[in-house]
Design brief:
heterodimer; A: mainly alpha; Cytochrome C Oxidase, Chain A; Cytochrome Bc1 Complex, Chain D, domain 2; globular; disordered C terminus; B: 205 residues; mainly alpha; 8 helices
Chain lengths: 796, 205
């Protein structure tokens, strides 16, 4: 026995002295496995939905060339597939949020709940506190998912990645997460019969606390209708909030709860002790403390202040080992059990899952290094990175858990181990066939964007060239996705057959455990001051010895409330230190006098831009990188985005950046391009937006939206008065429609959405080269006049 | 520590803690040394990096690097000629400068091809290959149209996006497109104008 262990042992013994002896009377209870079965079913169903939507959007990137394929005789045999790139509700911009939300919150979300509900009851030796809350949680969450599946394709979105759902759904999420799930979970901790909380529970606690904080703060918005709202934050600050949220959605939805899952199911399946208790302590606390800072690495080289960018990078670098702590603890738990891998699909899924976790958490810090990010940002490299994590780590850990749970929950043998093995191999091959080509695609495109020829000019000035080049890789991805889905389908079938062989009535084994009596410290009585002082120093001595051995943590493990508070402190401290200065210190966003609010029509166009999910393919952020300013124009300044509620910087350039799109092309060009992008750019993979030429702009809505923006501080001045906004919008729309008509385009576009969208695009990035308005409040909402440019910063 | 089962596990991988949760046990293995060292090193690196870039005189910003690249670019491309004049003679003489025509072609593809097509055949924008022009009578008018735009903004102004030199050689490039044969030329618009004058002899000012 090591000295360390002896110390821990005696610490334990000492902590028990002065404590009332625990009652030995046994309590009888059962576990609620019905709720676990429900969540497991939801995991499988939504998983398949999420994967299939992913496949559809992967196809949408390659399908345009197939649709346009023309035989020698001039016929287009695949024209019938055109609906995939022209149906209003099925465009990439609307389905991509559905894919990400379905996979993160429906598939991974339900997988987390499956794990939490199964393991928490057993780790606490207690049934969930309230069966009613369990059911409310389950049905509430599924209702939210259905709402998401309906609203996102219909174009109701807040326009912030992974936080697209509109405000009523956001409210519902907060209620279900904290009110139902959180309350139920924390009360179960309170009524537990196990004195100490196992590491899995720490991770669940951190998850619940942090997700609540992230969701509520990032989603703060002012409603402008039942399914329309504007983020209260704008521009740089909104970007910061969004990626603080977005990155930590990865941390606290896709990482911490899955580590908790791993800590429970991995040793269970391997029937081996966890490798290191002490490592689990140090990596848990370092992970949750460090992770929360890392968000700004999504905004390197943007208009975010440099200090925030640096914090994002450095905390990501420091995050490497805390992340790996979990991976090491998982993999080393299998020491002495490696032989079991040969015939246990569960362990194989776990091992590959954890391996992908370690690859992703090495790659994460790498991508956060500014100069690496300069290449990777806006490319498919990020897409490959997240799919290694999502398919490999989240997917495989979930699959492993499901295969382990199925026989236990359905109380029969797994229908077919062979099918599970097929699933494993198809899945593994599918992931590799997905990520490897997409890595190549990402790096290829990144290098093409920055390539210069001998004359110092861009080697690939035509953006579409850099997209066309990727088509073979995109096809390979479709193949990888098909394999992965095939594997998941086998699992669904396997589960169905297992379920069909279930007993008529599930057994509910009755558990027995003594109730936990509250810890009551009785103060020791001392005969003299000398004895008291001696005892005091003796205690201090022991405390110092043991502090290093994690004895203090052992105390924390039996106090859920303290654990919650300390977790909250760990995640809130980093958040506040990063976010508060960005809001409080004005110099972070130097204002630009010539930047004025969007006109009512432009705002309406921006609403269309957000609703169509244009940000899923187009960035609005030109980085101060020479190849980038050569392609798109002067780099973006923080002050240009102060009226952008929400910001629309984007994270991926499947199409070109639009930050300085204003004034680059004629109105007619835009109109024809929206009608059919391939009419303007033959190889374009953009969906057709012909429906925007048909659907009418609601002028009443325009006024309401202007008023909502005014409420969050956009200086609209007179514009909020009755009739003003609509009047302004009509006048500007007529101007654009007339211009299109006189240039030879169609007539009658005055009241169509496309006109508003064109107005918005023509405004993008133009303010900075205008002279400052004479009276800012008045001129605020009028069209920024004058072409005599001050050429501020446009030093070309 | 008691019980044969625990000792049996301990025998192959070190001491086990006395915790047990639903049958799960934990070893009391120390945190691996290399883990602590790499974690420590990442913290040290972070402090040094932050101090170097944000609290020392040796750091640089991305804007600095960008400005240096910009200067280097202009020096590479226009270093030999300085600020070009915008008159007829200057524009015409650039047409025979192959380096400048390469640069201008890239500028054209990046900014003009969307409306005028890569080969200048015209689409939403006019055909630049034929002899008809809408707002151009002399070669220096090309520079003016590029600079200020035309047709109420349908042809955008490039004044704030391209430097004067870039616009001069772009005008020359567009002038050189006249008489070439595009894949699909748009019908002529505007009126036919006289051919460009001959370029001044090399070296002539």
């Amino acid at each position: 026995m090591s000295t360390a262990e002896a110390a821990v042992g005696t610490g334990e013994a000492r902590a028990q002295t002065g404590v009332r002896p625990e009652s030995t009377s046994m309590e009888r209870f059962t576990y609620d496995d019905a709720i676990v079965r429900k969540f497991m079913l939801a995991t499988v169903v939504w998983g398949l939905v999420g994967f299939v939507v992913g496949l559809v959007i992967a196809l949408q990137l390659v399908i345009p060339s197939v649709v346009n394929y023309t035989t020698a005789s001039g016929s287009r045999p695949f024209a019938f597939l055109g609906f995939l790139v022209s149906t209003e509700f099925l465009t990439f911009g609307r389905l991509r949020p559905l894919h990400t939300n379905a996979v993160i919150f429906a598939f991974a979300g339900n997988a987390i709940f499956t794990a939490v509900y199964y393991s928490t009851q057993r780790l606490c030796k207690a049934r969930m506190w309230s069966d009613t809350l369990s059911r409310l949680h389950f049905w509430g969450w599924q209702f939210i998912i259905v709402c998401a599946a309906l609203t996102l394709p219909l174009g109701f979105t807040q326009g912030k990645e992974y936080a697209e759902l509109e405000w009523p759904i956001d409210v519902l999420i907060a209620v279900v997460w904290l009110g139902f799930f959180g309350t139920n979970f924390f009360m179960t901790l309170k009524v537990r019969r196990e004195r100490h909380m196992y590491v899995a529970l720490w991770f669940y606690i951190a998850t619940i606390v942090t997700v609540a904080m992230l969701h509520v703060l990032n989603s703060l918005a002012i409603p402008a209708g039942w399914l329309k709202s504007y983020s209260v934050y704008a521009g740089v600050q909104d970007a910061m909030m969004q990626w603080w949220y977005g990155h930590n959605a990865v941390a606290f939805v896709l990482t911490t709860p899955f580590l908790g899952l791993m800590y429970y199911f991995m040793p269970k399946a391997a029937e081996r002790p966890v490798y290191s208790y002490r490592l689990s302590i140090v990596h848990f606390w370092s992970l949750i403390f460090v992770y929360i800072w890392a968000g700004p690495h999504h905004l390197h080289y943007t208009a975010l202040p440099a200090w925030a960018s640096t914090l994002g990078m450095l905390f990501s670098v420091m995050l490497w080992m805390p992340s790996w702590g979990g991976g090491i603890n998982g993999l080393l738990t299998l020491r002495g059990a490696w032989h079991k891998l040969t015939d246990d699909p569960v362990l194989r899924f776990f091992v590959v899952g954890v391996t992908f976790y370690m690859m992703s958490t090495f790659e994460g810090p790498l991508l956060s290094i500014k100069t690496v990010n300069m290449l990777s940002h806006y490319t498919d490299w990020t897409i490959a990175h997240v799919h290694g994590g999502a398919l490999g780590w989240n997917g495989f850990l979930t699959f492993g858990m499901i295969y382990w749970l199925a026989p236990r929950l359905f109380q029969t043998r797994l229908h077919s181990k062979k099918l599970a093995e097929w699933h494993f191999w198809l899945g593994t091959l599918g992931i590799l066939m997905y990520v490897v080509p997409i890595y190549i695609a990402g790096i290829t495109q990144g290098l093409m964007w920055r390539a210069f020829d001998k004359s110092g000019s861009l080697q690939f000035p035509d953006f579409v060239e850099t997209v066309t080049k990727l088509m073979p890789f995109y096809w390979a991805r479709v193949g990888g996705g098909v394999l992965f889905i095939l594997g998941a389908t086998l699992m669904a079938y396997n589960l169905l057959r297992t379920w069909m062989a279930r007993p008529a009535v599930y057994e509910e084994p009755v558990q027995e455990a003594p109730a936990l009596r509250p810890l009551v410290e009785t103060p020791p009585k001392f005969k003299s001051r000398l004895e008291a002082n001696t005892e005091f120093s003796h205690k201090g001595d022991i405390w110092l010895q043991k502090a290093a051995d994690g004895w203090w943590h052992r105390l924390l493990e039996r106090r859920p409330a303290k654990m919650i508070v300390w977790s909250l402190i760990a995640v809130a401290s980093g958040s506040l230190l990063e976010i508060v200065p960005l809001f409080a210190i004005r110099s972070n966003v130097p204002s630009i006098a010539s930047v004025t609010p969007y006109t009512p029509l432009e705002l309406a166009g921006r609403d269309v831009y957000v609703a169509e999910g244009c940000y899923n393919c187009h960035s609005q952020m030109i980085r101060p990188i020479w190849s980038e300013t050569k392609r798109y124009g002067d780099y973006s300044k923080p002050g240009e985005f102060v009226y952008d509620h929400p910001f629309q910087w984007g994270s991926r350039r499947i199409g070109p950046d639009l930050a300085r799109e204003g004034g680059q092309r004629s109105n007619l060009w835009h109109l024809l391009h929206f009608q059919d992008p391939r009419q303007s750019i033959t190889q374009s993979i953009m969906p057709s937006y012909a429906h925007l030429l048909e659907s009418r702009l609601d002028m009443g809505e325009v006024a309401r939206h202007v008023r909502a923006q005014a409420m969050i501080g956009v200086p609209y001045g007179e514009m909020v008065k009755e009739g003003k906004a609509a009047e302004s919008a009509r006048a500007q729309a007529k101007q654009i429609a007339d211009d299109i008509a006189t240039s030879g385009g169609p007539t009658g576009l005055e009241d169509k959405k496309v006109t508003a969208l064109i107005a918005y695009l023509q405004r993008l990035g133009t303010d900075i080269s205008k002279p400052p308005p004479a009276a800012p409040a008045e001129a605020g909402a009028s069209e920024g006049a004058g072409t005599a440019a001050s050429a501020d910063g446009a030093g070309h | 520590m008691s019980g044969g089962k625990h000792d049996a596990i301990a025998a192959d991988s070190g001491p086990v803690t006395d915790h047990e949760y639903d049958g799960i046990r934990e070893y009391d293995n120390p945190t691996p040394g290399w883990w602590k060292w790499v974690f420590g090193a990442s913290i040290v690196f972070s402090v040094l990096y932050a101090v170097f870039f944000h609290a020392s005189v040796y750091g640089w910003t991305v804007q600095d690097v960008w400005a240096r690249q910009q200067t280097a670019y202009y020096k590479q491309v226009f270093g030999a000629v300085g600020e070009l004049k915008t008159d007829e003679g200057t524009i015409l003489s650039q047409m025979s400068n192959p380096e400048f025509m390469d640069v201008a072609r890239a500028t054209f593809v990046a900014n003009c091809a969307a409306c005028h097509k890569r080969d200048g055949g015209g689409d939403v924008g006019v055909n630049l290959c034929d002899d008809s022009y809408k707002n151009v009578e002399k070669v220096e008018d090309l520079f003016k149209v590029i600079t200020d735009g035309a047709a109420n903004g349908a042809m955008p102004s490039w004044k704030t996006r391209l430097s004067s030199n870039e616009r001069v050689i772009l005008a020359a490039y567009v002038a050189s497109l006249r008489g070439t044969t595009p894949a699909a030329g748009k019908v002529a618009e505007g009126k036919v104008i006289a051919p460009w004058p001959k370029a001044p002899a090399p070296g002539a000012k």
